[in-house]
Amino acid sequence: MTCEANQKFYRLACLAISASAIILALYCRIRLLSVPFERDEGGFAYVAQQLLRGIPPYESGNTMKLMGIHTAYALMLKLFGETVEGVRLGLLIVNQVSILLLYFLARRLMSLEGAIVACGFYALMSVSQAVLGIFAHATHFVTLFALAGLVTLLAAVERPGNFRLFLSGILFGLSVTMKQNGLLFCIFAAAYLLFVLISRKASLQETIRKAAILGSGMILPYAAVCCYMLYKGVFAEFWFWTVTYALDYAKGGAFQEERLNSCRPAWVKKPLFSSKVDFSAGAAGNTSVWKPVSKSLRHPGQREWSHGQY
User: Fold this and answer.
1) pLDDT tens per residue, range 164-174
2) pTM of the entire structure?
């Protein structure tokens, strides 16, 4: 075999292996579309369902997650129906788009063969039971927007332009609204941009200007969420659950009921813990999120479904 023939064979082998991995992962996702909701999925679906009915998060349920993940769920429910299969179909599309974005990102950093293999490995790893990959956790959506942000950032660095840089910032900001740990991708993006500008010996004025453009894009999605919460009159609850409570949770593990109630501000009217939680398809491991409950268990702002904290 000639060197060129060896190269072609190697490329085809990589393509065949990665394609098999992606098809296998896709088959697993389709095969498991109807698996009952996991805990987080039940909570996200419940809040998203209420959001479609005009009831904002933090009024219909207590959650540490930002509004982005609930909006993503609401979009999936709207497009594919208020069913378990509808949510999983949305996850399948998110996963396939993430694989495509990973290819574009890897192709900029390595050979064609390396990019193909990376996509195959990601497809298998993202469906692994070790990471609860078949469930529509917020991390899938963080990954989607982080990958999109990285691809756009590399394009902005290669072909300087304020729009691409600003768009990249927005995408990274959206990853944070899916889950707070998306902030790490924002830090990495800012550090990478500074590294590129310093290596190119850019002026201080240009460095500050580009950093401001990227930073303003990152802040915009979170600012939009804050404005929405102010408009809906639930900003205090939003801040408590996503900042005050979330920070304490991260520092000391799970809140004890007594500790949570002792630090509860006066404006939190709803009970923070209840023994009558019936909404969650998560903790129960079933689809009771879609099950109507008696009027005695309903939150005043809630029309159909049960209420709880997750």
Assistant:
1) 999 999 999 99
2) 0.79
